[in-house]
C-alpha cells in the first residue's frame, strides 16, 4: 500500500496574525482566467484559489512564488502586508500639478 505524500501549500489565516493582502482576483480578471484555470496552472484545487483571494488562506512561500512567477510579476506586486490601492486610483487619478511655478 502506497501513501500519497501531502505537501503543505499554506495555512488557514489566523485572526491573530497580520493580514496578507493579494491581487489575485484582479490579476485573474485582467487575464480572463477562471479560478479553475489558475488552479490548474498552479496545480492546486480551485477552492484554494478562492480561499487565497478572500484572505481565508495564506499561501506557503513556495506557492506564493509560483503564483508570482505565473503572472510574471515580483512577489510584492501580488502579495503585501498592507492593502493595495484600488487600480482605479492609479488609472483615473487627477494629474499632479507642478506648483513650483506658482510663486
Question: What key phrases describe this protein's structure?
Answer:
103 residues; 4 strands; single chain; mainly alpha; two-stranded antiparallel ribbon; 434 Repressor (Amino-terminal Domain); disordered N terminus; 10% strand; 6 helices; two-stranded antiparallel sheet
List the helices and strands and how they pair.
Elements lengths: L9 E3 L8 E2 L1 H8 L3 H8 L3 H9 L2 E3 L1 H11 L3 H4 E2 L6 H5 L12
Antiparallel strand pairs: 1-3, 2-4
Helix pairs in contact: 2-3
Model regions low in confidence, pLDDT < 50 over at least 5 residues: 1-8
Report the end-to-end length measured between terminal Cα atoms. Answer: 82 Å
- Report the CATH topology name of the domain at 21-85: 434 Repressor (Amino-terminal Domain)
How much is the average pLDDT? 83
**Major β-sheet strand ordering:** 1-3
Sheet-strand content, in percent, reads 5-15%
What is the H/E order? Answer: EEHHHEHHEH
Report what the structure shows.
The chain is mainly alpha-helical. It has a domain of 65 residues: 434 Repressor (Amino-terminal Domain) (Orthogonal Bundle), CATH 1.10.260. The protein is built from six helices and four strands. It has a two-stranded antiparallel ribbon with strand order 1-3. A two-stranded antiparallel ribbon has the order 2-4. Helix 2 crosses helix 3. It is globular, with a radius of gyration of 18 Å.
Tell me briefly what this model is.
The chain has 103 residues and is mainly alpha-helical. It has a domain at 21-85: 434 Repressor (Amino-terminal Domain). The chain has helices spanning 24-31, 35-42, 46-54, 61-71, 75-78, 87-91; strands spanning 10-12, 21-22, 57-59, 79-80.
Amino acid at each position: 500500500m502506497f501513501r500519497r505524500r501531502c505537501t503543505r501549500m499554506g495555512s488557514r489565516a489566523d485572526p491573530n496574525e497580520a493580514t496578507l493582502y493579494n491581487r489575485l482576483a484582479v490579476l485573474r480578471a485582467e487575464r480572463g482566467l477562471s479560478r479553475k484555470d489558475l488552479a490548474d496552472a498552479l496545480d492546486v484545487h480551485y477552492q484554494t484559489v478562492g480561499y487565497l483571494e478572500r484572505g481565508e488562506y495564506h499561501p506557503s512561500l513556495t506557492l506564493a512564488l509560483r503564483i508570482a512567477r505565473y503572472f510574471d510579476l515580483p512577489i510584492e506586486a501580488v502579495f503585501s502586508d498592507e492593502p493595495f490601492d484600488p487600480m482605479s486610483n492609479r488609472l483615473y487619478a487627477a494629474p499632479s500639478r507642478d506648483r513650483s511655478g506658482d510663486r
